[in-house]
Amino acid sequence: MTRRAGAVATLSVADAVDRLRAPGAPERFSPVAGEPLLAVELGREGRALGPHELAEAGEALRRIPAPSVGLRSGVLGQGAKTLVDQFDVVVDTPSELERLRKRVSANPRAASVLVQLLRHGETRDVEAGLVAESLAYSTLQAGPEFAVWLTGHERRPLRPDTRPAVRVWRELDRLYLELDRPERHNAYSAGMRDALCEGLALAVADDHIEEIVLSGAGPSFCSGGDLDEFGSLPDPATAHAIRTTRSAARLLARCAQRVRVAVHGACVGAGIELPAFAARVSAREDTFALLPELTLGLVPGAGGTVSLPRRIGRQRTAWLALSAERLDAETARDWGLFDELHGAAPG
To answer: Most buried of 137, 155, 284, 340, CB within 10 angstroms?
Structure first.
């Protein structure tokens, strides 16, 4: 009772409800025991569905380990309308569904952890969300998908920065923090994290600082985590302890209403996860956002599973992370990830 959409087998809404209500649904839709993705054609109802059936199916969508993707096609029936908000992602075309299937199939464990974090993050506060994200990230660091990426990555020798990775200065009641590794497109290193935390701690401690302005030097705001440092800590437990001890995300969340971030160029990984905590994000028209962590067998680890859903919602965050596709500045503005756009820098 399946139908092909592109190269992805999809279920009608009624077929999906029947399978979701079965006791074995978590094993049927699982990265280790069954299908790594549940795909449903929302415009194909199949039959009339009762309220009890739909309620059980909605609960099951939050329990199955695999990501669920709804393909919006045609006019939605009552069943699809009831369930559409419970899916992890909703897409508009079969080609989008196929691209998601390929991404998820390549790293199904990371994809499963991602959607589980996002589903249950809606009921967590910021602190609990950051702890859950770090635990999930650390678990995946010990997993086979990250090991495959790590084996294929040629790590360059780590070289200490010749100057502070973040410039910090104050003008009256305004504190400026500028990421300053332009030769590495402001890759988010341990040194940059430490320096950023020091600056943010000052802002949190001093109520007389009325505005904190975060920006980046060079061609990009931040190109994401410094890949040459990935996997360099002795073990995932230590990595989790460090991540929850020194957290720029936690500090940003504490002073978020006073923070304005000016982004440009590449905003990758931490480069978009951290700005999303701020009350105001302005972007140049050449800016793009990207969450590539799934392709490494990981999930966002700089607070993105906490900050991004609060700005753009759970389903759009899941799409951004599962697809690992670029989000252009105009779309990011329309979604609410950026608050305003301004012209590109002078040539």
So the answer is: 137
C-alpha span between 142 and 90 (Å, rounded): 30
Mode of pairing for the β-strands spanning 211-216 and 174-179: parallel
Give the residue from 122, 107, 150, 140 showing the smallest Cα distance to 322: 107
Partners of 340 in the beta sheet? 282
The phi-psi region of residue 346 (left if phi > 0; otherwise alpha if psi is between -120 and 50; otherwise beta) is beta
Ordered by where they begin, the domains of the chain are 2-106 (no CATH), 126-342 (3.90.226.10)
* CB-count exposure of residue 235 (10 Å: 0-12, 13-18, 19+): exposed
Of 240, 241, 227, 216, the C-alpha closest to 158 is 227
Residue pair 288/266 in contact by the 8 Å Cβ criterion: yes
Picking from 10, 9, 27, 15, the residue whose alpha carbon sits closest to that of residue 65 is 27
pTM score, whole prediction: 0.93
* Predicted confidence (pLDDT) per residue in 64-121, tens digit: 999 999 999 888 999 999 999 999 999 999 999 999 999 999 999 999 999 999 999 9
